[in-house]
Amino acid sequence: MRFRINRTAALIAAFGASGMVPAVAADGATAAAAAGTERPAQLAPVVVEESRLQPLPAANRVDEETMRALRPATSDTASMLRDVPGVHLQGAGGVSSLPVIRGLADDRNRIIVDGMDLIASCPNHMNPPLSYLDPNGVSKLRAIPGVTPVSLGGDSIGGTIIAESLAPRFAAAGQGLLLSGEAGAFYRSNGNAWGGNLAAVVANENLSANFSATTAKAANYTAGGNFKNFTATGNPGRTLARDEVGSTAYETHNYQFGLAYRQSDHLLEFKYAYQDIPEQLFPNQRMDMLGNTANRFNLRYLGQYDWGQIEARAYYESVDHLMDFGPDKRFYYGMASGGHNAVVGMPCSPISATCAAGMPMKTDSNTSGVTLRADVNLGVNDLLRVGGLYQHYRLDDYWPASGGAMWPLTFDNINDGTRDRLGVFGEWESRLDAQWTTLLGVRYERVTTDAGPVQGYNPNINFTTMMMGGMPMRSYNNQQADAAAFNAQDRKRTDNNWDLTALARYTLDAQTDLEVGVARKTRSPNLYERYTWSTWSMAAVMNNFVGDGNGYYGDIDLDPEVAYTVSASVDWHASDRSWKLRATPYYTRVKDYIDAIRCNNTTTCPPPNATTTNQFVVLQYANQSAELYGIDLSGELPLARTGYGDFGVNGVVSYTYGKNRDTGDGLYNIMPFNARLALTHRIGGWDNALEFVGATSKDQLSDVRNEIGTPGYGLLNLRASYSWKQARLDFGIDNVFDKLYYLPLGGAYTGQGTTMMINAIPWGIAVPGMGRSVYTGLSFKL
Q: With left for phi above 0 and alpha for psi between -120 and 50, is residue 146 left, alpha or beta?
């Protein structure tokens, strides 16, 4: 394989290494080399030194050392982004937290896993895209906040997160058969968490096969300080330890098989992945995941030509998802004669049409897609990227009859829901001179959604009389009227969405880079925002992917969100980047932001739903307008090089403010001012850190949701690792002083008790964070 070493090759190589051009090696070699080829890299210094080009915009890559240090400490891949400026985590299950980029969470960000746009198929978003990768199965992870190139954007208004599993490896020329592998295990004291990983590769120069398997399991974790859960304060729920945080246990298994073939400048790669999660409990949801199986098939072609490179991909995913009450939430829901008078807390056996021990909720989905992109060399200093995608998504969300008020029919939450995306983009990057680099792009997507007719458990009743504390209480559900109104509408919607991006970098001198960018980005509503239809509080609280304890239902007529973002960055650094400091202020205004309004129909949402300030409520998704602004700071500084090792400091500081411009209300789940600072030490095979993590009190709240505030906190963490030959030992202590704190983005604590009823559990308690946890991990490479 031969390539001209010129500025064009250097341009492609630099962008490929950062994800701007997929899978092009940093040494300017072939597509096969980008996939992990064991080839000599003697050309690398020549190309890199000539181009001196950094990716535009600057992508925040999680480096390999950071990932290796975090793998024993977490089973949640999203949490490995915690050192990325502007990225925070919305609390969920132990392996399913949702990334928040500059105040915009979940579906508002594009998350690409091995080139696939995966979708959370759950009314609580318990299976987000990153939950399908175990931290030990991630080889590359990076985030681009805010202004994103159109080649990496689409159907999102926040940023883009790109995760890649293990890439294929090939033997070097003349090496013969390549055999390699890795094995590891970890243990964490809090929650008695443990797990392991195994990976193996067999390859020659042209053919490569790999296999990986990971597993992780944990019981409920305990909070620090003097946390008292519901059991300790006399409220209903399974008997827990005094400081135990209910519904935080999990168990997960992930497997992947890969096969790749390369010939000259061409690579053909196939991956099959399977996930089985028999249990993942959620402390901020009314339900738990009691089963999630997924199958993913991913076929990719990558080819290098004289004019540039081309990449094509086809993929398919099927998901079978089950929710019900986990052990901390399970209670019996018995019906008296007549089928309309319920008694909560009365055991009943056997389960029959008038007696339920749970409320099964099932979700089946399949996603298929194709993508095509080409990177075309227009000249020495110009690169054109063009491409397109088609994705078809189908969803059935249904709740089988289980007795009590939940019978005799199946409740159709979303019936035959579909969401199709068809998109194309064009992007031109140009190096004007030694100081200026610019990028211009335009993207068009056509998003079509639809859903079939629905029915409730019992379309012939509009309320259920329930006994609470010996007193009758009317639960308004209005299933008949809600279903009839939904079915009478034309439910098909088509959105024509446009994204525009302009970016520029100016190199002032060897120590200062300036970047500025503006973007128009568009996201269409997801199926749950458009097609959930029941105002019944019991059904509504099951449709909640923000974890605030409230109930939600949709609006077919929602418009797409359109965000206008401007950001600027100043990057100061040493000529050799031994120290660096980066500051990025930003501002975003969102037209038709999908916020929420109170249900005030007294027939379906009786008082005090419209006015209460200290209870959970029922809300409807609604288009309004919003603005967000803030600043991200990050830096790294060497302190001293001594006979006792090298000392340094690094950190990230972030501030975000978000407001609903129509109402003046705060936006939900905005992270308060926060910082993560670390003192690092390296000597020989040792790599150690003393880390401070803190946040101020959260008091800018979403009043329409009765959002729960959290006090400020500061935590101390310790970690150390020692590497020798092909082995590595990790050790750490999180929350060294066992402090009680509450997660600012953790939502409402609904992790135990009778969570079916909207206000049967105490309001005003945020999810507490984990107390002291000692962890260790051991890994071997062959």
A: left
Q: Are 717 and 69 in contact (CB under 8 A)?
A: no
* Predicted pLDDT at 233: 64
Nearest-angstrom CA–CA distance, 661 and 483 = 33
Peptide bond into 350 cis (omega under 30): yes
Domain boundaries, the chain: 56-781
Q: What is the 3-state secondary structure of 41-66?
A: CCCHHHHHHHHCCCCCCCCEECCHHH
Of 17-26, 93-102, 323-332, 661-670, minimum mean pLDDT range: 17-26
Pairwise CA distance, residues 113 & 105, whole Å: 17
Q: Which residues pair with 497 in a beta bridge?
A: 445
**Nearest of 410, 357, 248 to residue 754 by alpha carbon:** 357
pLDDT, tens only, 457-478: 987 766 554 444 444 444 556 8
Token output for 448: 């079509």
Q: Which class is 56-781 in CATH?
A: mainly beta
Q: Are 738 and 715 in contact (CB under 8 A)?
A: no
The pLDDT value given to residue 679: 98
Return the sign of the alpha-carbon dihedral for residues 251, 211, 127, 565.
Answer: positive
Report the Cα–Cα distance between both ends of the chain, in Å, rounded: 29
Q: How many residues does the chain have?
A: 782
Strand order in the sheet with 116-117: 60-61, 138-144, 160-165, 110-113, 116-117
Yes or no: say if 565 and 587 are a contact pair by the CB < 8 Å rule.
Answer: yes
Phi, psi of 67, rounded to the nearest 5 degrees: -65, -40
